[in-house]
């Protein structure tokens, strides 16, 4: 979708998406596919942001509700919600978001580490921040959203 | 013969064959230990060692050849009846088998072993025959002369007879037409022979016909040679291994003993026609040397020569194909997909309202049957008997008992029980640990045993069996049992439990599974290094298994492992609870029933039991236990699954509805998500939805038993994680 014919090595391609009113993005290289929301089978004794598991062509895919994890108030998911299937550290998982917006190329130099605001629920999940067309774009730290990362609720 | 790269594959298959041969050696030795002293059993062992030696020779694995040779030499004494299979001999035979195993491993991995150890074993082994009388009958001596000779090992105690014989061999070699057809070349063979030592060669051309009678494809030449080399017979014979059966070959010792010379010559197959005399029932095997003939000794000599198989040919009962495990795994996965796909198809056909007697439904039914058959067959490919695992344990017992000076007999049961290959592989370490523990901690010292009025030889029993869709493996000893006061005291001293607790016997026994627990007051070589039963337990759990311990003072301890049969499919009952679909493993369900309100008795403030067949069974609300809902509190006419643990303890699970009974493909949750309490795995149902597979025992262990909402507890409804708070509060 990028207008340029080549990829600038100093630029990072990001897939941006909406969670509630906020705009996030992930490195496009970690994205495997984007699919519509299907009801997930809830896992007993799991953390609130773990929606459960769905069947992704024969494999069991855990679904992380990003809104819940990031503390963003949203309504229950509908068919209009989207699951972004990402691959992190040999693990595949689905991120439940509201909508996918765009693919962006951001120069590495334009990315800034987030200010330390421990009070915020999203603290620890944001790797970097950048400004695009006057909007702030958050770059998600996929390592932090992996299910094994935080201590299991049980 | 070094092994260059193209040889790597052949070499690898040699080592696989070695494994099989070592297994049959173990089998034979075990049978002999059990009193089977017939010549066939001894022959099996002998052949196994001999074949390993033959193969090792071909690959230039000198250490292995040397050891195998000396081992079979001693074994040959037993075969000849000059050595009896008494306990001491068997002990040494087993030990030598272990060393042989190590040597094979060392050769395979390119490592080396401690020469001193090997030599010690050998000299002890050869000590058995050191004092044996001289061979009696000439025929006997003749038959076994090549084996007992070991001139490459000077200083070895061998019969003076053979030692006196002149070093060297008379070889007569006449290639048959087939030798040339198969692309062999006598010149290379002669050249190879001349590398062994000084060779005198004489070509006999007397049979060459006049030119007009000469068949250009026939061979009329024969050679007689004298090899002046101080080597054993096998060294000579192996050169002709590849032409075995396509030539006339006589190898005899240069000796004045004419009878001996001709008799020796009969060892290798002399004639291609007589080498394949009677077709054996198994077409895959080559007729085997000195086969079932119960009197090889008497038959040997000048009369009928016994056809010999080349040393590399192992006695294989069945023809097998070696397949990369990855390929099987892929197939297992594909079949799994097929099963899911078939279920989806069935469901959509049902939804279309197609009548049950239509061709589509019939076809689908057959399809289902076929899918199931394919699945079973694929699973069978992966299944292996636990025998190889048990044999490894036999060795552990031998070594462990020797190092703590205890006499231990290992009794195995159910060796033919088949288990998934991966399970077997991953079971080796925990089982080794358990067996060592049984020898080291389980059994008392010899004095204590005698003082307790027990035989001084302890028994460790290893058994495997299929029980209700799982594999049960037990390690038990007839030792003193768990010293419970001591266990409790140690746990208290180590701060693992608070002191002064009142614990039941089984609770104390289970303390052994706590990390960092070790009961032996002194740390021995074998066990008690702190990595203990907790490691065993976690490795068993990672296989979807469970471990239980039971003990009776003075009578012994039993450790029981229960494992899933396969890691791929499961027969389950599909139930609905709190709007979710759950699969309950069929094997754990004892019965299903519908509750009458009067059967429910309140136990604690929140817990209930049902009275069924004269026993009280705790009532568990599955929906509540999984945190899907708060306890309903009203279970009149509910559907209940009665589930049982391996130890027989039962629980009644309340579900909303039983849907069907079906086979499901297990999809691990562990890799993609992590452990979920009370849940063993997941599966995909016909509608494409993921359903969770219950782990009933884990659920029972964690169960709160809450069947009524307590008024003083705040329970947040729904599936929020806070619901679990209420579970654990119970």
Write the layout of secondary structure elements.
The complex is a heterodimer of chains A (154) and B (730).
Chain A: E1 11-19, E2 22-27, E3 31-36, E4 50-56, E5 59-65, H1 66-70, E6 82-88, E7 91-97, E8 99-107, E9 126-132, E10 135-140, H2 142-145
Parallel strand pairs in A: 2-10, 5-7
Antiparallel strand pairs in A: 1-2, 1-8, 3-6, 4-5, 6-7, 9-10
Chain B: H1 8-33, H2 39-58, H3 62-79, H4 87-109, H5 115-130, H6 138-148, H7 160-164, E1 169-175, H8 177-181, H9 186-196, E2 199-204, E3 222-227, H10 233-239, E4 247-253, H11 258-265, H12 272-275, H13 296-299, H14 325-351, H15 359-382, E5 383-385, H16 387-403, E6 407-413, E7 418-420, H17 421-442, H18 446-451, E8 457-467, E9 470-477, H19 484-493, H20 505-510, H21 533-542, E10 546-552, E11 556-564, E12 569-577, E13 580-585, E14 589-594, E15 600-602, E16 608-612, E17 615-621, H22 622-625, E18 639-644, E19 650-655, E20 657-665, E21 679-684, E22 690-694, H23 696-702, H24 722-729
Parallel strand pairs in B: 6-8, 13-22, 17-19
Antiparallel strand pairs in B: 1-3, 1-4, 2-3, 5-7, 8-9, 9-11, 10-11, 12-13, 12-20, 14-18, 15-16, 16-17, 18-19, 21-22
Helix pairs in contact in B: 1-2, 1-4, 2-3, 3-4, 3-5, 4-5, 6-11, 14-15, 16-17, 17-21
